[in-house]
Amino acid sequence: MTDYPSSTVFVIDDYAPVRTSISRLLRAAGFVVIAFASAEQFLAQYDPGVLGCIVLDLAMPTVNGLELQDILAKAGSLLPIIFLTGIADIPESVQAMKRGASDFLTKPVNDEVLLAAVHTAIEQGRTFWQKQAELSELRARLAKLTPREREVLDGVVAGRLNKQIAAELGTVEQTVKVHRAHVMQKMKVRSVAELARLIERCGIGT
Amino acid sequence: MSWITVVWSMNAAACLTLAGIYLLVWCKQREDRVYFVLSCNAVAGAALTAFELALMRAKTVEQYGVTLRWAAFPVWVVVVSLVVFVRLYLRAGRPWLAWSVCGVRTLALILNFIFIPNLSYLQITSLRQVSWWGGETVSVPVGGTNPWILVAQLSLLLLITFFVDATMTAWRRGDRQRALVVGGALILFSAVAIGEVVLVVWGIIQVPFLACFSYLGLIAAMGYELSSDMLHRADLARQLQLREAELLEAGERMELAASAAEIAVWMWDIVRDEVWITDKGRALFGFDSSEKLNRDRFLSRMHPEDRDSVLRTVEKSLQTGAEYESEYRLVLPDGQLRWLYGRGHVEFDCNGQPVRMRGASVEITKRKQAEEQFRVVVEAAPSAMIVVNNEGHIAQVNTQAEAVFGYSRKEIIGHSIEMLVPERFRSHHIGYRRGYFGDARARPMGAGRELFGLRKDGSEVPIEIGLNPIHTPEGLFVLASIIDISQRKHAELEAARRRNEMAHLSRVTMLGELSGSIAHELSLPLSAILSNAQAAQRILANGDVNHAEVQEILNEIVSENRHAVEVIRRLRLFLRKGDVEEHSLCINELVQDVLNLVRSDLINQKVTVDCEIGQNLPSLTGDPVQLQQVLLNLVVNACDAMAQCDIGHRRILIRAANENDCNAVVVSVSDHGSGIPDGEQIFEPFFTTKKKGMGLGLSVCRSIITAHRGKLWATNNPDCGATFHMSLPIAASRDDLVISNNGGVQ
Predict the structure, then answer these.
(1) Is A110's Cβ below 8 Å from some Cβ in B?
(2) Among the four B211, B325, B637, B639, which has the fewest Cβ within 10 Å?
(3) In chain A, which among 134-193 make CB contacts under 8 A with chain B?
């Protein structure tokens, strides 16, 4: 497991009393909270390296909640979003959840529900972060492979025998064995099964 | 011939002549009975003269006694007739004295025929021949005087007493000429005659009876007095003739004038029942010029229905002397109908008996026809009509007016118009009425205010009144045409009730559409309250209490609670269903309230609202909820119209400006949507361009604005989108209306 930074909760709501009260509640529950009055303000200070979650008001002038979600998704943000809305509009909630919202809560929200959602979201953010870290490591390892080694890797993960791979690549079995050893070494795995699981987990298929 | 015969015969002739003259006079003037009495008296005088002559010429004692006996008869007539004459002519003398004279004289007459030879003498022993002047001899009786003669002489004494008494009475009364001549002569001559007779009877003097000369003097004196009366009368008659000639001329002049003025002048001699009338009058009544006329002839010309009323009026005038005045119809022989107006007065004699009636009549057919036409028109009018004279009395009403006010004509004609005005307006009304008569023009009454009439049963009826002055010879009248608007009022109330229900329904619908927005609006403060409260709980539970923060939290909770209450208040107000209430409204507040209601929707739809509210706009008067509803509808419509626009173009402009020309404030809502179809169909019920909604919004909006005396219309913008305008009259003009509602009937 890689170390990850401490979590921050970003509260974005144009209605000040809600914004301050939610922030106050989260702070009282021990969270680090940064509040913004609009999506634009948040984006201006957005740091992709910061971990945590966003408590986002759905209805805001100019850039609303769904639009911000869109923007962040496109930017590859890992921050899970908890939507807060005055009224649970079903199409909007479905859209939000489809786009990967962590939760969709209706105002007024009970503190336990909100805190649970924030905990979950932060956890989710951590998982994302971990996944993202693993993926980066894997990609770094993969990047070290030569093109021939990569081809051999694909053959091995596909479960083919050395001589089958040699035949496909138009080479001899012995050469394949050397490449295979290099792949196992570069990918830091000891068995083909482990390699296959790693490749599958990172979602990088052939 | 003997001079005695000549003189006595002349005396008798003179008496008879006078008797004849008096009889003639009496025949001409039957009512003057004094002449008849004098005539009788003179005849008796003549007879007395004849008896005196016969006595003087008597040859035997027997002859003398019989003659003297019969002479008592004319004496009785003379005495009685003198008494009657005095009573009639001097109108004096005590009645008991008069009756005594007559009674005692009559007793004497009776006794005279009981005693032989007569009352004067017990026995006439002989006749002595007495020589007179000129060698004439006359017979004078010699014998014992009858003591019963005293009865006859008592009657003569009473007679003189009666004369004295009557003369004194007449003198004292001031009738001195008559008292002196008639009374004086009566006393003087009768005293002389009676004295001579008494002396002869008692044999004190030896002369024959010579009473007839005294009597002639008496007759002459009375005759003088009566002649002067007659002379006086003749003089009067001459003067009368002159006067009559003058009158005739005046009468002719008047007739000429009357004829020129088409006036019939008439005179009814009530005693003889004869009517004189000018030629014009004959023509008017349809009589020919020679026909003799009386009351019944006139009555026969009158319309049978009018006869009784005319007769009653005439009778009243005859009894009370009041001026006669009436209007009646004539039916002429050819069947033509003619209206006449007659006036006259009655003349009475000294006994208070009506003797004649003079007057004039004039044709008023044209006036009556005009009146009748007017009456028919008024009666046929579809609305209630009341004619009022310049004293404010009701002169005429039609059936519709009877129906509206519940009175019959008889009950209101002649009464003050104020009886139809409710008590609370009455005093104002009198002033307004006088003002109107001072400057009478055709105009509606109490324009712009509500008028009420008072019905017989005490209820009030809303009415509309038009006033028209009518100038007539009898003065100014006002024709008020009155329309009972209770049904219209009822319909208006019903329409208003339906409109309000519709508006309410529309509001409920609209709020249903806006429910998300409103729920959101309410969830915000509730959310802030809950989170703040729970934050405070945690802060307290953590033990690290920052008092300033807790204070801040509580402040925010209170503030947000108020916010929530405000949202609920607005909502409740908006959903309220009840009577329309008029308030003074600030346009700015109206706009802000509406924008607060749709705030969330505007945010969700990314619509920006710009407001341009003019400075110092006057207040409006109206129902705040309904006007909010209209504005809200327009804003929601504007949002909906821009659903397909680019986000940057989703702008609404709300403007409010004072229109000086029409004393109105115009509020407009502009959008940048796709615009509206031409024409008025957008304001028709169930017309909609939206997928949701019933299409009632704008039709309800228009009915609300119309009920506020405003206008709602829409135009397309030059670039894109549409603008809805509503113009509302400013509060000042509505204030007038409120005041005048209490101002009463004008």
Answers:
(1) yes
(2) B325
(3) none
